[in-house]
């Protein structure tokens, strides 16, 4: 699927979008992060898991997003039990070194478990179907009491990198005060598992057809960040989750530009020179 060369969003200026002034000095250095687009098949087509972030959060408060978050330094732990494409393959997909690639995949698995309860782990040839035994570990991961590698080792589990697929690469605009260099992954809900909103970062969560989520945003019922909006537009073209996973993707680094336009903020995506 080819992303449009230019895509323009007009969104209301609001507290959740803090734009720095050029006079404030050089742009903030983006922090590495991972986001996971979690899909499932439903009677009327593919659905995506979305979370409405609590108001007042420093980044994207009040916005509807996919599960994800910043990389923890411990996510780069090379001792983690691993199945699927090696870090070298992910490094090639996301144009980074192997250490960061490993950390991004681990962050994707960890954040998905923390924020939705979906665990992309198991053995070399099976996936966890019941995550109930890991309820306390989930809370300990979210509070950073334990690392992903430590949790998987104690539970005798293997990280299943083969359940993830590379999807996109977005960097927060240089005009924003908080910036993230985010690699997007896509994964299908494992059989037997369910996603929930049992995280301190979400006020609500649930499954929704991508086109319906976009319609909600257009009509003011939810607020979407540009990467989320454009991804949902892309996903609305598919009727099955497996088709999304099988679709060839060219991972293009996209850095939007923010331009003030009266009471609105214009977000311009230009991937032609990314």
From TrEMBL:
GO terms for molecular function: hydrolase activity, acting on acid anhydrides, in phosphorus-containing anhydrides; metal ion binding. Transmembrane segments: none annotated. CDD domains: NUDIX_AcylCoAdiphos_Nudt19. Its cofactor is Mn(2+); Mg(2+). PANTHER family: ACYL-COENZYME A DIPHOSPHATASE NUDT19 (PTHR12318:SF0), TESTOSTERONE-REGULATED PROTEIN RP2 (PTHR12318). This is NUDIX domain-containing protein. Residues 29-230 form the Nudix hydrolase domain. Keywords: Hydrolase, Magnesium, Manganese, Metal-binding.
């Amino acid at each position: 699927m080819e992303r449009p060369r230019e895509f323009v969003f007009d969104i209301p200026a609001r507290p959740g979008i803090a734009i720095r002034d050029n006079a404030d000095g050089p742009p903030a250095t983006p922090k590495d992060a991972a986001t996971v687009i979690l899909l499932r098949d439903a009677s009327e087509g593919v659905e995506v898991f979305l979370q409405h972030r609590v108001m007042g959060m420093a980044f994207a408060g009040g916005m509807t997003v996919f599960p994800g978050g910043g990389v923890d330094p411990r996510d780069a732990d090379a001792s983690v039990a691993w199945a699927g494409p090696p870090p070298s393959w992910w490094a090639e997909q996301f144009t980074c070194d192997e250490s960061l690639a490993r950390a991004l995949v681990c962050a994707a698995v960890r954040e998905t478990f923390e924020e939705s309860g979906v665990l992309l782990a198991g053995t070399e040839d099976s996936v966890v179907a019941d995550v109930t035994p890991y309820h306390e570990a989930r809370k300990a991961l979210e509070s950073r009491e334990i690392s992903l590698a430590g949790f998987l080792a104690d539970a005798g589990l293997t990280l299943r990198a083969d359940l993830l697929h590379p999807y996109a690469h977005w960097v927060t605009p240089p005009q924003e005060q908080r910036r993230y260099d985010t690699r997007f992954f896509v994964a299908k809900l494992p059989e037997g598992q369910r996603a929930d909103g049992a995280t301190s970062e979400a006020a609500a969560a649930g499954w929704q057809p991508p086109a319906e989520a976009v319609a909600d945003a257009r009509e003011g019922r939810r607020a979407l960040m540009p990467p989320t909006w454009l991804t949902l537009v892309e996903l609305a073209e598919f009727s099955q989750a497996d088709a999304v996973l099988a679709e060839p993707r060219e991972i293009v680094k996209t850095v939007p530009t923010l331009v003030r336009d009266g009471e609105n903020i214009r977000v311009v995506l230009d991937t032609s020179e990314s």
